[in-house]
Each structure stands twice: as C-alpha cells, then as structure tokens.
Predict the structure of 8-oxo-dGTP diphosphatase.
Amino acid sequence: MKRIEVVAAIIHKGDKILATQRGYGEWKDFWEFPGGKMEAGETPEEALRREIWEELETRIVVERFVKTIDWDYPAFHLTMHCYLCRVESGCLKLKEHEAARWLTKDDLDSVEWLPADRDVVKEISAYP
Ligand SMILES: Nc1nc2c([nH]c(=O)n2[C@H]2C[C@H](O)[C@@H](COP(=O)(O)OP(=O)(O)OP(=O)(O)O)O2)c(=O)[nH]1
C-alpha cells in the first residue's frame, strides 16, 4: 500500500487550539491540524514551518513532539507526526483552507475531524 508521511501542527493559544477546514480533495470540508507531507531531506520541524508558511503565511515555533499517528485510509497508509506549536508571527491567512477556528477543549468535538485525527483530539480534550 502507498505510504505517506505527514507533519501536523497543533497550534495553541491560551486555552484554544487551531483547527482548519480542508478546502479541496476527497476530504474537503473535514477538519484537521494544518500541515502536510514531508519532503525529502526535511526534518519534521522544517516541514512544519514550511507547510504553515505555505498554508497560513504564519511563522510558528515548534514546541514539542506530541505523538505519531498511524492510520489506514482506503488508498494509502498515513504516518502523521503531531507537534505542539505556537504562533511566532503572522495572521493566519487562509491560503488553502476554507475556514479556521480556535477551539477550546470543550469545543473540540464540535467539528468533523479527519478520521486519523479523532484519537489525538480525544486525548487533547482529556488534558487537565
Ligand atoms: N495536514 C493534515 N493532514 C492530515 C491530517 N489528518 C489526516 O488524515 N491528514 C491526511 C490528509 C491528507 O491525505 C494528508 C496530508 O496531505 P496534504 O494534502 O494536506 O499535504 P500537502 O499539502 O503536502 O499535499 P499536496 O496537496 O501538496 O499533495 O494527510 C491532519 O490533521 N493534518
């Protein structure tokens, strides 16, 4: 099966986390953490900073690794490395996404997450 390796930014601000809504493709309208496929030779941190700049014209600080998710979609196997991040500068301009929302832990399940994200979202909701 085809495999893809993706990095995802769990961007936090105060008690909120940023969710973005996919603007294209098979999973259009589902919600995700911004990010994307790693390119050859990139570290996860470099890939995250590049993707967030491309998608949101925003610079981020990558604070720490959270977890790696493995998920089988019908057409490929996804390995997704999730990192806790914060905004360094920029105003989250939506270059590719349809919408973005800052969600508190209590609101996290108010949007329809991509299937691979549901476990990590549940974990975040359980943080003290
Ligand atoms: N960015 C991101 N992708 C996710 C998440 N959860 C999840 O299943 N995915 C899947 C959806 C996509 O199949 C894949 C990411 O690919 P992408 O299309 O966003 O990456 P990209 O911008 O590098 O891709 P491309 O359109 O330029 O080919 O990972 C998530 O939280 N964030």
About this structure: The chain has one domain: 2-125. Residues 34 and 117 are 12 Å apart (CA to CA). Residues 6, 8, 27, 32-33, 35-37, 78, 80, 114, 116-117 surround 8-OXO-2'-deoxyguanosine-5'-triphosphate (CB under 6 Å). The domain at 2-125 is CATH 3.90.79.10 (Nucleoside Triphosphate Pyrophosphohydrolase).
